[in-house]
Amino acid sequence: MDIRHFKTFKSIIEEGNFSNAAMKMGYTQSTVTSQMQQLEQELSIKLFEKIGRNMVLTTLGKELIPYSNELLDTVKKIESIGKYDTNITGELKIAIAESLISYKLQNVLSLFRQKAPNVRVSIISLNCLAIKTTLLKGQVDIGLMYDVGNKNDSLITIKLADLPLALVCSPLLEQDKFDLCKPNQQLDISLIINEADCIYRKILENHFRDNDIFLNNTIELWSIEAIKRCVASNLGISFLPRFAIEEELENGKLKELKAGCSDTKITAIYAYHKNKWISPAMSLFMQLVRENFNIN
Fold first, then answer.
1. Which residues belong to any copy of the HTH lysR-type domain (predicted)?
2. What is the CATH number of domain 3-79?
C-alpha cells in the first residue's frame, strides 16, 4: 500500500471534499480520485459513495479514519528518527483561542520559528468548544484555549494560568447610571461580546440571568479588537480578559466597571489527544508555551 494514498485520504477528511484536498496537496482532482480508487482496491472495501453530487464516507470509510491516523503518526515517528536535536522537521497543526493568539502567544510563535525553521506550522483560530472537537477528531496536534469544563478522558490537559476578566466601558459612559451589581433591573445599554460559546460571555450572562439583569441589546462580534473599538466609541460595554485590554485601561481609552460576578477569571490550558504521538516539533512548542507561562 502507498502511504501517499492514506495522506490523501486524511486530507479529504480534513478538507471536506476531493477538490479541496487536491488543491491543498497540489494534485489534480482526477489524481485524488484515482488514489482513492486504488486504495479501495487494495483494501477491498468501499470508502466513498456518491450521494447526489457529493462523495460521502461509507461506514467502513469512517472506521478506517483512526487506523489511518495511527499509521500516519507511525510514519512521522520513523521520519523523525535522528532529527530530535537541531534539525526538527515535519508539520505542526495548532488551534488557538483568538485572545490567546492575539495577546499571549506571539512571543512563543516567534521563538518556535527561530528554533524550528523547517517545521511547517498551521494555525487556526477557533472558539474553545470547537478546539476540543478538532482535538478529539485528530485534526490538530495541540489546542490552546480556556477550560470550559466537560472534561474528556481522551484529552491530556495542562493548566497554564488563571487569568482575570474585566467589565469595561467607554470613558464617555455615565457610569453612575449603571450598577451591574444591583439585581432586578433593565439597562438601556448593549453588551458587545464574542460568540455565544465564549466562556467569559457565559460567565457574565449567567450573572445577569441569576440576578434578573437585562440589557436591551447584544452585539456579537468575533474580533476582540473590533469589540474594544466599539466599546471605546461608547456603543456598549464588554467583558474581556484583562490582558487583552491592559493597554486601553492604562491610556484611558477604556474604563472598568464593577461586574459583581462571583467568578471573574478564566483558566488558560493547552491540550492534546492522549493517543497523539508527541513529535519533536510538538514537544518543543509545548515547552515554549510552558516557559512563556512560567510553568516547569
1. 1-58
2. 1.10.10.10
* 186: β partners: 214
Please give the pLDDT value at position 215: 92
CATH of the structural domain 90-162+267-292, one choice from 3.40.50.720, 3.50.50.60, 3.40.190.10, 3.40.50.450 = 3.40.190.10
In the chain, domain spans? 3-79, 90-162+267-292, 163-266
Task: Please tell me whether residue 80 adopts helix, strand or coil conformation.
Answer: coil
Assign 204 to helix, strand or coil: helix
DSSP string for residues in 220-271: E-S-HHHHHHHHHTTS-BEEEEGGGTHHHHHHTSSEEE----S--EEEEEEE
Phi, psi dihedral angles at 52 (to 5 degrees): 65, -125
Residue carrying the nine cell digits 491540550? 271
Give me the amino acid identity at 243.
F
CA distance 192 to 209: 17
Tens digit of each residue's pLDDT (9 = 90 or more) over 108-166? 999 999 999 999 999 999 999 999 999 998 899 999 999 998 888 899 999 999 999 99
Does this model's pTM top 0.90? My answer is: no
